[in-house]
Amino acid sequence: MTDRRTDGDRHRVKIEPYDQPAGGWGSMKSLLRHLKRNGRMIDGPAILAKQNKPDGFSCVSCAWAKPAKPHVAEFCENGAKATLWELTDKRTTPEFFARHTVSELLGWSDFDLEAEGRLTHPMRYDAATDRYVETDWQSAFAAIGAELKRLRAVDPKSVVFYASGRASLETSYAYSLLARMFGNNNLPDSSNMCHESTSVGLKAAIGVPVGTVLLEDFERTDCIFFFGQNVGANSPRMLHNLQEASERGVPIVSFNPLRERGLEAFVNPQRPLQLATNRPTRISSNYYQLRAGGDIAAIAGMAKALMEMDRAEPSAGVIDHPFLKEHTAGADEWLSWLDGLDWADIEANSALSRGDLTEAARIYASARSAILIYGMGLTQHRLGVDNVRMIANLALMRGNIGRPGAGLCPVRGHSNVQGQRTVGIADRPDLVPLDRLATQYGFEPPRERGLDTVSACEGVIDGSVKAFIGLGGNFVRAVPDRSRIEPAWRNLDLSVQIATKLNRAHLITGRASYLLPCLGRTEIDRQATGEQVVTIEDSLTSIHASRGQEEPASEHLLAEMSIVVGMARATLEPNPRLDWDAWAADYGLVRDAIEATYPDQFADYNRRMFTPGGFPRPLPARKREWDTKTGKANFAVPSALDASFAAGSGDDVFRLMTLRSNDQFNTTVYGYRDRFRGIEGTRDVVLMNSADIAALGLAADETIALEAATDDGVDRQLPGLRVVAYDIPRGCVGAYYPEANVLVPLSQRAEESHVPAAKSVPVRIRSLRQH
Ligand SMILES: Nc1nc2c(c(=O)[nH]1)N[C@H]1C(S)=C(S)[C@@H](COP(=O)(O)OP(=O)(O)OC[C@H]3O[C@@H](n4cnc5c(=O)[nH]c(N)nc54)[C@H](O)[C@@H]3O)O[C@H]1N2
Ligand SMILES: Nc1nc2c(c(=O)[nH]1)N[C@H]1C(S)=C(S)[C@@H](COP(=O)(O)OP(=O)(O)OC[C@H]3O[C@@H](n4cnc5c(=O)[nH]c(N)nc54)[C@H](O)[C@@H]3O)O[C@H]1N2
Ligand SMILES: [Mo]
User: Fold this and answer.
1) pLDDT above 70: residue 648
2) What angle do CA 350, 351, 352 make, to 5 degrees?
3) What's the farthest any 2 CA atoms get from each other in the chain?
4) Average pLDDT of the segment spanning 288-305
5) Confidence of residue 2 (pLDDT cuts 50, 70, 90)
6) Residues 542-584: pLDDT tens digits?
């Protein structure tokens, strides 16, 4: 993709190792740069002070928990970037669209598209001029409603209702009802590309599809493990919890192919003394650079070492046998599987030594309670679900679930992605109380499984999907196999995108396309009954109220709820039991409806949502009650030691990890400074081990192409990448997401959960030099 203009960050490429801690002065400088760029030097700091406060708004960046007693500034560098990016003073107006054809905009970078600022008017694509043109809300809803009614009469399963993980619980609940009343469970969400492996794996293992720790567990734990989660860039507020733990002497053990700065050292910008002296707190006490896809083997090695220690000293209680007996099923099979494992296989598949894994096991065995944290490094693999089950196995061996200071902690992505599932955005009908919805609203909900993200993509390609509604997100850019999906997308009868900023997905148009601009969460949401509050669920299952603080970016914006209601009213027949307009006017009524559908989860919702720190949803696993088929917590033996697709391929096949920089939120690129990795001014790089660079006869800084090593007749190439020598295990390479998505085949997804296997894509390196 070419760049329209040279962003201030981009003209000078600088690649050199970064030795500064996460946080500290680097984050202060970055904050200032983003205040300035978004025109918020004067009022920005006051706005940010409201972030993640009981009377303020919940951060629009990650889903990390908000404490009951917040810090003076309860935000991080990246949360501030997300807020300022939403509150920018720049606008993408109808005049902008008059100046640029859609074909021209397709040549712009992700950064440049969003940097134009907030969308201001509802727009309709006009094929004759190849431009988006202004429309009004009524005409937009009428046209969308007419098209949806037509499609429903032919096949109600031909429409997809995607959600990207930000919209509030109230809007998400209404949106999932719209889909079900329309006639399908086609409710894919970003979670399908993300923590679906968790939803499937943890439900089967411990009976809840989510993690089990609360914030207070961080204050009581004796040990923390990190598997494939990059805290410094993706959930930086957690660094405060880690700093406190580290200062108590708690070991923090990380398994990651890359040495991520935030997992190593942190200077808290909110501690003036630490900031002044720049003397960092160590985060990880032990760091194991395993091979991508090597976690099953690594955890198996730790578990085997635990078993050996337990046998050597049966009275030491290394394995919690009473817990295994009372609470678990499958322990015998698990232990005998471990018994049969060969250390040589474990070492080969993890690229870690027996000594390292035994050391990690010792740390784990010495801790009374442990928290096991993980992220995309586990979920985005062929055996992503087995990865998650392995983490659960490890926890179960020492009874580390359902007691203080212990538990599983998947770190969710979008700020309300977990909550969207809680209130019904799910392609799997077994996750939703359909019978209750049937009585509450007097309709027959569809019972057939709907489309998840990958199957929705396949439906677009094979033509069975005719229309797509996107409640936020950048679908076409975030999914795999762009080169196959983009052309197929143009055959859709209808593409509707509800968004705050322009992105590439909006430029891949269907026969009819609408771009509907909405309020962001930071903005005041005024409705007929007054200013509205919304709620979201954080990564630790706590529900919070969030109140917008700023004047909307344009008077023509509608709240996401109003847009969903507008589409519902234009599409569905009136229902005496559901007054959509009343919902749009008063979100308290929607919360009453949610409480009626989920009485145990949301008891006394309208009052409790203001609880400082949020109110936790009740989770049986926290009380050691196991809502599984066996009524116990289940061990599971994995189907292989290698989680990757690249297994068994030739020597020239590398495992590509697609990575987030410290200067992006998913497809939103804030800038070109991946400070922690020392890569600035460009995203067009491939990180490689220097021995691999030498073995291939490449030169550092040489420009190469990556090509997918998948023999299915599809040509997948990413040219123009500069080779960067990097501390990464041999055989693994790294490149940035979403640029590298073109290399990920749709077919390479996690078994069971269908999460695209974005962390070990088999690729070959093609030199562009003339020989
Ligand atoms: N600022 C910012 N915050 C974000 C986001 C963002 O883009 N920017 N995105 C949000 C979203 S939607 C999500 S899902 C989360 C994502 O947050 P994370 O879960 O942290 O996801 P990634 O950054 O994709 O990758 C995580 C780590 O996995 C490591 N890794 C790769 N392969 C493997 C492997 O095989 N094994 C192990 N053990 N590690 C591996 C990588 O080196 C990387 O450090 O963050 C959320 N928060
Ligand atoms: N190769 C590879 N692919 C991946 C991943 C990876 O690690 N590697 N990660 C995957 C993961 S974890 C995820 S979650 C997905 C992300 O996929 P998506 O959720 O679809 O993408 P985002 O980039 O988060 O969406 C950004 C857009 O959301 C819109 N937006 C922002 N705020 C709001 C709002 O408040 N309301 C509305 N309606 N719109 C808003 C803006 O227009 C912005 O352009 O990508 C996945 N794809
Ligand atoms: Mo995500």
Assistant:
1) no
2) 85
3) 79
4) 98
5) very low
6) 999 999 999 999 999 999 999 999 999 999 999 999 999 999 9
Residue range 174-215, pLDDT digits in tens: 999 999 999 999 999 999 999 999 999 999 999 999 999 999
In this structure, are residues 349 and 201 in contact, taking their beta carbons and an 8 Å threshold? no
- In short, whether 560's Cβ falls inside 6 Å of ligand 2 is yes
User: What is the Å distance from ligand 3's center to 666 Cα?
Assistant: 8
CA of 745, nearest ligand number: 2
Terminal CA-to-CA distance of the chain, rounded, Å?
26
- From 110, 504, 667, 744, mutation site for ligand 2 pocket: most ligand atoms within 8 A of C-beta: 667
Q: What is the DSSP letter of 446?
A: -
pLDDT tier at 46, thresholds 50, 70, 90: confident
Contact predicate 228/375, CB 8 Å = yes
Residue nearest atom 22 of ligand 2, based on CA coordinates: 473
Delimit the CATH 3.40.228.10 region(s) of the chain: 196-411
pLDDT of the residue at 502:
98
Decide: 233 in ligand 1 pocket, CB within 6 A.
Answer: yes
Q: Whose CA is nearest to atom 37 of ligand 2?
A: 472
The residue type at 54: P
Length of the chain: 771
* Atom number in ligand 1 closest to CA 662: 1
pTM: 0.96
Query: Is the CATH number of domain 196-411 3.40.50.10330?
Result: no
Q: What is the Å distance from ligand 3's center to 194 Cα?
A: 5
Q: Is 106 helix (H, G, I), strand (E, B) or coil?
A: coil
Say how far residue 529 (Cα) sits from the centre of its chain: 34
CA of 259 relative to ligand 1 center, distance in Å: 13
Angle at which helices 295-312 and 331-340 cross, to 10°? 100
Characterize 658-690 residue by residue with b for buried, 16 or more Cβ atoms within 10 angstroms of its Cβ, and e for exposed.
bbbbbbbbbbbbbbbbbbbbbbbbbbbbbbbbb
Residue nearest to atom 6 of ligand 1 (CA): 665
Q: Is the model's pLDDT at 361 over the cut of 70? A: yes
Pairing of the two strands 159-163 and 467-471: parallel
Q: At 707, phi and psi to the nearest 5?
A: -130, 145
The answer to whether residue 295 scores a pLDDT higher than 60 is yes
Question: In which residue ranges of the chain is CATH 3.40.50.740 found?
Answer: 91-192+416-618
Contact 387, 378 (CB under 8 A): yes
**Residue 766 pLDDT exceeds 50:** yes
Minimal-distance CA residue to ligand 2 atom 45: 478
> What are the pLDDT digits (tens) for 624-643?
999 999 999 999 999 999 99
Helix, strand, or coil here: 132? strand
pLDDT surpassing 90 at residue 76: no
Alpha-carbon distance 725 to 705, whole Å?
Answer: 16
- The dihedral over CA atoms of 427, 123, 663, 192, expressed in degrees to the nearest 10, equals 10
* Closest C-alpha among 494, 645, 652 to residue 570: 494
Spatial contact of 221 and 405, defined as CB atoms under 8 Å apart? yes
Q: State whether the beta carbon of 193 lies less than 6 angstroms from ligand 1.
A: no
Contact 410, 63 (CB under 8 A): no
Q: How many CB atoms within 10 Å of residue 312?
A: 9
Q: How does pLDDT run across 138-151, given as a tens digit for each residue? A: 999 999 999 999 99
DSSP labels, 503-545: -HHHHS--SEEEEEEB--TTB--EETTEE--EEEE-TTSEEEE
Domain 91-192+416-618 CATH assignment equals 3.40.50.620: no
pLDDT tens figures, 375-430 = 999 999 999 999 999 999 999 999 999 999 999 999 999 999 999 999 999 999 99
Atom from ligand 2 closest to the CA of residue 414: 14
Query: For 323-342, b where at least 16 C-beta lie within 10 A, e where not — what string?
Result: bbeebbbbbeebbebbeebe
